[in-house]
Amino acid sequence: MKLVIAIIRDRDAGSAVDGLVERGIGVTRLASTGGFLKDGNTTLLVGAREEQVEEVMDILRERCSRRTEVDIVAPHSTGGVPVWHLGYTPIHAEVGGATVFVVDVDQFRKL
Ligand code: 2BA
């Protein structure tokens, strides 16, 4: 048994969850926030048999939009300085696709 932890864009989450559920693969959807952009994203927890992992990857590949580059202007840390001194920093980042961790599951039980 494996646990696939996939961090994806919010806009791709519905389609990815539907793709997994349609194939009978269990999934839990969590609201998360990226540390760099400090923007909302979605984390999927997918418990899968070892032989299902590539199927999960295929669904994520198919359902999560391709990576694109974005330029945004984000508030930078105030480092304790009062908020009216908040500065803004231009950030260039690649977004989209999926960041995926696959970990071994020691036990999977439903009690
Ligand atoms: P964020 O941390 O908000 O990062 C969003 C995107 O910003 C990243 O996309 C990457 O293209 C860029 N980025 C992140 N850190 C950077 C840095 N120090 N310098 C320059 N650019 C940087 P992804 O790599 O696809 O990551 C998407 C989201 O996946 C991340 O959102 C974070 O929530 C998660 N993530 C990525 N790598 C992770 C890791 N090693 N451990 C845990 N979560 C991770």
Protein topology:
Elements: E1 2-8, H1 10-22, E2 28-33, E3 40-48, H2 53-63, E4 68-75, E5 88-95, E6 98-104
Antiparallel strand pairs: 1-3, 1-6, 2-3, 4-5
Helix pairs in contact: 1-2
This protein binds ligand 2BA.
Give a description of the structure:
The protein has 111 residues and is α+β, with helices and mostly antiparallel strands. The chain has a domain at 2-67 and 98-104: Alpha-Beta Plaits. It contains two helices and six strands; from the N terminus they run βαββαβββ. The protein starts with a strand and ends in a 7-residue tail after the last strand. The model has no long low-confidence stretch (mean pLDDT 90). Bound molecules: ligand 2BA.
Q: What is this structure, in a nutshell?
A:
With 111 residues, this protein is of the alpha+beta class. Helix content is 22%, strand content 41%. The protein has helices at 10-22, 53-63; strands spanning 2-8, 28-33, 40-48, 68-75, 88-95, 98-104.
Brief descriptors of the model:
111 residues, alpha+beta, Alpha-Beta Plaits, four-stranded antiparallel sheet, two-stranded antiparallel sheet, 6 strands, elongated, binds ligand 2BA
> What kind of sheet is the major sheet?
4 strands, antiparallel
- Record the strand order, biggest sheet: 2-3-1-6
Distance between the termini: 17 Å
Mean pLDDT: 90
Order of helices and strands: EHEEHEEE
**Which structural class should the secondary elements be placed in?**
alpha+beta
CATH topology of one domain: Alpha-Beta Plaits
What count of helical segments does DSSP give? 2
**Low-confidence segments, ≥5 residues, pLDDT <50?**
none
Q: What are the bound molecules?
A: ligand 2BA
CATH architecture group name of one domain: 2-Layer Sandwich
| Quaternary status | single chain
Portion in beta strands: 35-45%
What is the level 1 CATH name of one domain? Alpha Beta
Shape: elongated
Fraction of residues in helices?
A: 10-25%
- What is the β-strand count? 6
C-alpha-based Rg, rounded: 17 Å
